Amino acid sequence: MQHIDMIDLSDFQPLRASRNYRIFQHPLIDCALLKVRVDEPVRHHAIPRLAERRYGNLRQWNREANEYLAALSRNCPEIERLARFMGFCATSLGPALVVEKLTGPDGELAPTLESERAAARNDPEKSRQLRDEFLELMDDLERGRIIVGDLSFENIVRAEERNGKLVVIDGVGERVLIPLTLISDWAFRQSIQRRRARMSAGFASG
To answer: Who's near 123: CB < 8 A, 6+ residues apart?
Structure first.
């Protein structure tokens, strides 16, 4: 028997699907999405870490919630560069992360930086513009001391809700066992610099 507080997604089609997630429109909140994990937990260590034992394949959500809360506690304006964390809930497909729905000019899900980067591959001027916007995003993350442990072009989108700015929608928080970036300013800056250099090289140049 279904729990009274469980959201039934049996009649809903995902807006987007990947190997790890299905993303649904929240049936009760227009500005929210439900991210449901669909992959099986993978055990990477002979002796599971505490987070692995407690959260299984949901441990990334624990890291994301912690990092968003940390930015919220500092009241840093750069938090606008993150999709808003809105909580957790139970669904008929399993636990779901509730996140802010970010959209493009057409009202559909916001386009990823990867899609824009691919479209601009033969347009050096547009590629330079995208690269500059990406570097501005990285500057804001560094200024706000926001840790993104899994940054890619796929988890950055251009959001109308941020006046067209680039926003990180996934991968925030530190993934390693010993989180040096949390306790060392030098380690944090080095981490940001590595990502800045690696990803800025991925934009086509004329």
So the answer is: 204
Longest dimension (CA), the chain: 61
Task: Output the CA torsion 73→79→84→86 (10° steps).
Answer: 0
- How far from each other are the two terminal CA atoms of the chain, in whole angstroms? 61
Per-residue pLDDT reduced to its tens digit, 43-66: 555 555 555 666 677 778 888 898
What is the rounded CA–CA span in Å between residue 36 and residue 34?
6
Give the chain as a 3 state SS string: CCCCCCECCCCCCCCEECCCEEEEECCCCCCEEEEEECCCCCCCCCCCCHHHHHHHHHHHHHHHHHHHHHHHHHCCHHHHHECCEEEEEEECCEEEEEEECCECCCCCECCEHHHHHHHCCCCHHHHHHHHHHHHHHHHHHHHCCCCECCCCHHHEEEEHHHCCEEEECCCEECCCCCCHHHHCHHHHHHHHHHHHHHHHCCCCCC
pLDDT for the residue numbered 20: 80
Token readout for 47 is 């002796």
Statement: the pTM of the whole predicted model exceeds 0.70? yes
Distance separating alpha carbons of residues 17 and 11, to the nearest angstrom: 16
CA distance 135 to 197: 9
